[in-house]
Amino acid sequence: MKATFILPLLAASAYAQRGPTGLTTDLCNATPSIITNFTYFGNQTNFATTITAPATYAPGSTRAVNITISGPQGAGVRGFLLYAAESADSQVHLGKFVNLNATQWTTLDGQVPTTYAPNCTTFGVNGTVAHVQIRDTKTFPITIQWIPPTTLIQTFKFFAVANQRWANNTNGYQILESAPVNVVPAYAELCRANPNTIAATGNFGVQTEFWTKVTLSKKNYGPAQKPVNVTIDGPGAGINGLLLYAAIARGNPQHLGSWILPSNRYQTLDNRSASFPDCSSYGKGTTVAHTGIQRTIPFPVTFQWIPPTQNVGQVKFWVVAVQNNNSTGTPVQGFQVIESAAIKYNANQ
């Protein structure tokens, strides 16, 4: 089966104008002047087709999100091109498309001869997707899964070219453009155990309860800075993501003390990376997270907290635990916000 890019019933005369090497990369983008010049697609028109995507994304997330093309009930498209970029004519397509139904969709990475489809690899591997069957109508809604880029792009959109053939055997195409997709607002807000902010990213599932708890080895801290053991435990093998800090209130902009970490599975969030926010504005070395994405954090796990020398009042510990799989191996996506008991200052400690 030969894959094609919005070219049902392609004829030699249709692509000959593109040169002897076949379809070129100018067809990797939703550029009306290029598409219209390639006469097979007909005229640019509007057949009430729309594209929807998440409003926000977190750089480096490995959770696939749905991109959906919708249109009139019972209708569909004959041809299709889809990508994410900062502009329609950008030479960089963002993220990657995954979990494609091989009988319906393909990424344009050179697997298909350029007689039938442009090679869009230079725009980004797995970053451009098109249909496969040359005669099948893809009925609405069309949903394709996509994983965000690891780099921080402040805002971008999804662009698509939808090709339609009508009963009178005429062609037309529509350029689709999603609403802007923005990096999670105030990405550093993910340094705090705010369930609304965490849920808004769309990358951690919904707030749920999987019975994770946090316990402390002491009820007091003092000027001697004796370590306090902070233990996270729960049922099952463990969790897949973790945020931990001490503060006088959950949303306080100052995190307190410092940490002795149990292994290299953990880090303090002092530098921005593709997968983690920079929490140094809350206090350098004060905010703990896991390191490897999707690496299991086994129960129980104990961290040593070194308190500040001065009396900062009553302190609590907050944990955000992220769960991808429960003890039975059934996929679960969700997070839990956990609050510890209070620890108080004692000058004799």
Folded structure, characterized:
Mean pLDDT is 82; it is low at 1-21 and 326-330. The strands form 7 sheets. Strands 1, 3, 6, 8, 9, 12, 13 and 14 form an 8-stranded mixed β-sheet that branches. A 6-stranded mixed β-sheet has the order 15-27-26-20-23-22. The protein is elongated. The protein has 3 helices and 28 strands. Helix content is 5%, strand content 35%.
Q: Count of helical segments? A: 3
The figure for the number of domains is: 2
Structural class: mainly beta
In terms of per-residue confidence, which ranges show pLDDT below 50 for 5 or more consecutive residues? 1-21, 326-330
CATH class membership of the largest domain: Mainly Beta
Helix content: under 10%
CATH topology of the largest domain: Immunoglobulin-like
| Average predicted confidence as pLDDT | 82
Q: Biggest sheet, in brief?
A: 8 strands, mixed
Protein name: Reelin domain-containing protein
Organism: Rhizophlyctis rosea
Keywords: Signal
Domain Reelin: 45-160, 210-325
Please describe the topology of this protein.
Layout: H1 12-16, H2 32-37, E1 43-44, E2 50-52, E3 56-57, E4 65-70, E5 76-77, E6 79-85, E7 96-98, E8 105-107, E9 128-131, E10 138-139, E11 142-147, E12 155-165, E13 171-177, E14 181-183, H3 195-200, E15 206-207, E16 213-216, E17 220-221, E18 228-233, E19 238-239, E20 241-247, E21 258-260, E22 266-268, E23 288-290, E24 297-298, E25 301-306, E26 316-325, E27 331-339, E28 344-345
